[in-house]
Design brief:
By secondary structure, this protein is α+β, with helices and mostly antiparallel strands. Helices cover about 20% and strands about 20% of the residues. The protein has helices at about 15-25, 45-50; strands spanning about 5, 65-70, 70-75, 80-85. Strands 1-4-3-2 form a four-stranded antiparallel sheet, covered by helices on one side. A hairpin with a 2-residue loop joins strand 2 and strand 3. The longest helix has 13 residues, at about 15-25. The two termini are about 25 Å apart. The model has no long low-confidence stretch (mean pLDDT about 80).
Amino acid sequence: MATQSPSRPADGEPLSVRVVREIAAHDGVDPMDLSPPLFHCLDPAALDDLFEQTGRGGPRSGRVTFTYDGKRVTVDSDGEVTIDPNAPIDRGGSR
């Protein structure tokens, strides 16, 4: 079953911190006990930079999906985090 987080990130909270909190909540652990650490799967600073405001202060749009500990995690530019432990992972192979 997929888990969606309907709340928005707190003002000033980096998106990577929100992702860690959501994965930890999904797994029922403290964010400090998340194993493996998120940075083993992706660069948290790059995730934060991906959805930074534009040079003119406008929002960016988009979505990024990655695999964390066998789960598919999707992060939308508005801060919504979806965790699907049962979704097949697209490896980008030939069709």
